[in-house]
Amino acid sequence: MKTIVRKVALVGATALLATVGYPTSAGAVELTCGATITQSTTLTADLGPCPDYGLHIGANNITLNLNGFRIFGTNEPRDGAGVWMVGRSGVTVTNGIIEFFDAGVAIEGGGGNTVSNMTLQHNIGGLRSFYGDGVAILSSVNNLVTNSTMRNNGPFSGVGLYSLVDGDHPRATTGTSTGNQIIGNVVTDNVAARAGGPVTSTDNDGIRIEPETHGNLISGNIVRNNGLDGIALFAGSSNNIITNNTVEGHGMYRTSVRRGNGIILFNRGTGNVVENNLVRGNADNGIVVQGPVGANAGATNNTIRFNLSFGNSVRPPLNPNPGGPFGGPTFDLQDRNVDCDNNVWFGNRYRTAFPACTTTGGAPI
User: Fold this and answer.
1) CA-to-CA distance for 183 and 174, rounded, in angstroms?
2) Beta 308-310 vs 349-350: how paired, if at all?
3) What is the C-alpha to C-alpha distance for residues 337 and 291, in angstroms, rounded to an integer?
């Protein structure tokens, strides 16, 4: 059951919808859940519980400074996003906590926004929810997510990049999410399953790059103990750079089809670079490049170099026999294309690898 909205006082240059602003003798205003801010705003107290979105961003080039406070939902499905912006640019959301929504921050369309020094936690979408992530970037470009913690969000990801097409979403701008930078975050324990199901059915990723999402940078993140894969590049996602991340402890929950990998490149992706990552202690493969699926080509013309991948294959594979896109044994390094099919593997260190082309220029440890 949804609960009553709490008001919060804000200071600084703040412009609100006329129906929600209430001047006070101190010169500040009170802001209710669901309000739209159109000037830079600093919180002076917590805001919530909010039953339907926290705050809407209604102008470009403004800053929402949570000032160490939190915006929180009701911990029920369909609470929307804690901070929601559509078609905005130059917005900064910083310095606080957002929890108990369907997404912590949702960026739809627009670009050039920043999420920094935030804790996004316990944001769980449900049936018919629009989101299921700590941060969701939907058909938006050149955004920066940095120095933040994404913990126990889902059921999709800690950070999700989505390139929407017509019919994917009832509101958001369609198009490719490109030029986004996910840098220096801690993305951990995002394990929730869909529709409130058991964690044994989770397909929740740490960082999720959905199909046909190109040209993004994932760098310097600690990605740990998420439900399925640590960093997943979905089908047709190309020219992304995955570098200098620590990726460990994934895939320990799911008990059907497959467990989870440290870093996975799904089929049809090309031109991706996976380099200088530490990948260890994952249930299935450390780093795996998927081969053909039906009529679709495998992931080809990718570069996987100078990674340290060891101590993976922690759990027995669910499909130990070869056959199908996920069948067969698992390794620290694995390419499921025949003879690696124009993928360049070079200078990696590993304990187990298959086939031999994954070991070029590298060395076992």
Assistant:
1) 25
2) parallel
3) 4
Q: Please name the residue that has the structure tokens 């097409």.
A: 165
Q: Annotate 157-223 with three-state secondary structure.
A: EEEEEECECCCCCCCCCCECCCCCEEECCEEECCCCCHHHCCHHHCCCEEEEECCCCCCCEEECCEE
Tokens at 365, concatenated:
């440890």
Task: Specify if 27 maps to a domain.
Answer: no
> Could you tell me if residue 204 is inside a domain?
yes
Quote the domain boundaries for residue 160.
Answer: 53-364
- Whether residue 127 is contained in a domain is answered as yes
CA 66 to chain centre: 21
Check: CB of residue 149 under 8 Å from CB of residue 120.
Answer: yes
Q: Report whether 214 contacts 247 (CB < 8 A).
A: no
Q: Is 340 helix (H, G, I), strand (E, B) or coil?
A: helix
Cβ–Cβ contacts within 10 Å for residue 170, how many? 6
How does strand 8-11 pair with strand 29-31?
antiparallel
Per-residue pLDDT reduced to its tens digit, 164-199: 987 666 665 899 999 999 999 999 999 999 988 999
The two structure tokens encoding residue 249: 């402890």
d(CA 258, CA 229): 10
pLDDT, residue 195, reads: 85
Q: How does residue 11 score in pLDDT terms, banded at 50, 70 and 90?
A: very low
DSSP secondary structure code for residue 20 in this structure: T
Say which CATH number the domain at 185 has. 2.160.20.10
The pTM of the full predicted model, rounded to 2 decimals, is 0.93
pLDDT at residue number 323: 82
Q: Please tell me which residue, 210 or 19, carries the higher pLDDT value.
A: 210
What is the spatial order of strands in the sheet that 133-138 belongs to? 35-37, 55-57, 81-86, 103-108, 133-138, 157-162, 205-209, 231-233, 263-265, 287-289, 333-335, 353-354
How far is the C-alpha of 283 from the C-alpha of 198, rounded, in Å? Answer: 18
What residues form DSSP beta bridges with 164? 175
Total number of domains in the chain = 1
In a domain, 113, yes or no: yes
